[in-house]
Fold this protein.
Amino acid sequence: MSIKVKIVSPEKVLFAHDADMVVMPGSEGDIAAMPEHAPLMLTLRGGVVDVYEGDVVMHRFFVAGGFADIAPTHCTILADRALKVEDVSVDDAEARLAALEKSYEEADKMNVPALDILMDKIQSARAEIEAGQSAIPAMSI
Amino acid sequence: MASLKELRARIGSVKSTRKITSAMKMVAAAKLRRAEARAAAARPYADAMRRMLAEVGRSVAGEGGQPALLTGTGQDRVHLIVPMSSDRGLAGAFNSNINRTTRNLVLRLQAEGKTVKILPVGRKTYEFLMRDFSDLIIGHRHLSASKEIPFSSATELGEQITSLLEKGEFDVCTLVYNQFRNVMTQTPTEMQLVPLALPENDNTDNADIASYEFEPDESTMLSSLLPRNLQVQLYATMLETAAGENGARMTAMDNATRNAGKAIDRLTLTYNRTRQTNITNELIEIISGAQAV
């Protein structure tokens, strides 16, 4: 019993394969998609998607927010931007984070929706740095 | 009649034109293949997005207080038109079709007494519309100059449209673009972006299962899906425009190459005839000169 997993970015399909479990960073907490999961749609925060085959993490992807569609037989992740964890560039993410923090400082503190968007972007950049750093020891093994 | 020297120059210049047009045709063919592959690669995301939106839309149907992107402002007074052309010409009627469709649309809406605003995308349509409707243009952007169109260019355009809507700058938004049917045919098409017609649910995989749960709730989900959906639609039309531009250019350059070949044949015939006539004339002059002696 497995589910069809698809990770899609606006430009292309990044990953399409069967898996036993997918753990994804939901905006209100991490969620695991497994076979026979009740149909659920959720928004994602920036973070790492783990694709399990058996008990082993076979693939790890960083997603910078997006949506997920979980159903008993499939799980589709629509990522705003997605890449393999080992392809994450910590330096790029740090530069982006610095730029975002600067624009947060300068932003109009009364404009709450805009601040929320900036906060989400900062969270996503921080998660990307974390994901990139966690990938480095894994690669050296 | 043109002199032999002039004819030789004409033939030479048409020959180099033919070389240029056939090179452009081959470049366009290569670019077209890449553009088509990119458009195909972007389709799964758009399809999945449409399914999710249909699902969310179904569960909020009939509820009040829905986002303006979905329902519009409830008025039909100010129209925003977004024509999308290529940045470069020499692509047959590709850009002039867009320009003509846009102009007709503007004139029709104005005749109905609506206020029209234009936000052109792509240099060709911007330059054309500046001539007639410069007072209606509220901004413009070019497609990316690089080979690939990044998703961020669609994001920026989408965000611009969304923020214009939030400021109450327009009620209805229509996109004018070339729908890519095949390499030969691109049809200028008007597509209403705001208010959005919710897609029908064609998700047959899930037809028999219970309806979805949402996290966060439906309306939050909807308000974050809608702007993204707008961007995805814009991105899809940008990719379609890129593919269509190269398709149209390939067809136009193929015709130009063939016409140049015909022109060369015609000119060569004239050249040879002229040469023969000249020789005959000279012979006649020599013979009649000899007879006179």
In short: The interface with chain A takes residues 38, 41-42, 44-45, 48-49, 51-52, 55-56, 151, 154, 205-206, 209-216, 220-221, 224-225, 228, 231-232, 235 of chain B (CB under 8 Å). Residues 111 and 244 of chain B are 31 Å apart (CA to CA). Chain B has a mean pLDDT of 87.
